[in-house]
């Protein structure tokens, strides 16, 4: 049996927020000139009262429009990832299923996938569907930390705050040969687990009350390590996948990655010797979308006609400080 990524649909909240928004809040920061934090022109922020469930529901609207009101009722497997869960003790899968009118047998909330969660979700959906656990799966991801964590009054003064943007996406996976998922490669680098940390002043555990708003604990040394790992891992899993499916990078119709910054985007396509025209990104329109980056860029490329029927799209990303990376390949069958 074959599993296909049949369609993808996305959502960007609110009106675009320009780079000047952060420029007017910026203060002296030892990381201000670091290449990791060169700001995009625009990004989007979740509304104050907007939940991850709201975002996924809005992202799914395109599927309903194109495939009919009953398409989600057929979902047997729901796989979700939320960057900042609405509640800390459980994921949002059950609430998303209820909101979307689904009664799936499988509801799986992923946390370890990070920026590569969409790829990990495709791997899990493919495995479940081809083993007979259902005929239809929905992979739903929500990035909602830009307008919540990074827009806190003291955090938005930092260089790191100007890069993230918010967005959500859903991918419809069916047991069919319409747009077959050719293969998926996922790798865990456990030696780097825990190197992404939350920093507060004074220090405390993330759940403890106290003064000082939490942000990502970046230092020059940590950034250097993350840059080196990301530059290595995304090409590594991409080339491993190409080898498994018997294609060379030059055979790839479209390369779609997560988009932490412009440096990674340039280095990744150069490593695969691909021109910029075959590497989709929305960094200057959306910023770093974390797990939503791949499906948002894929949806944009489909809508813009950059992905043609029969093309192979290679999706790849790494997560956190480099503790996970994955790549997936799909032979696109067109948006019906």
From TrEMBL:
Residues 243-332 form the Beta-ketoacyl-[acyl-carrier-protein] synthase III C-terminal domain. Residues 112-190 form the Beta-ketoacyl-[acyl-carrier-protein] synthase III N-terminal domain. Coiled coil: none annotated. GO terms for biological process: fatty acid biosynthetic process; secondary metabolite biosynthetic process. One of its GO terms (molecular function) is 3-oxoacyl-[acyl-carrier-protein] synthase activity. InterPro entries: ACP_syn_III_C, ACP_syn_III_N, Thiolase-like. The keyword Cell wall biogenesis/degradation does not apply. Keywords: Acyltransferase, Transferase. This is 3-oxoacyl-ACP synthase. It comes from [Mycobacterium] manitobense.
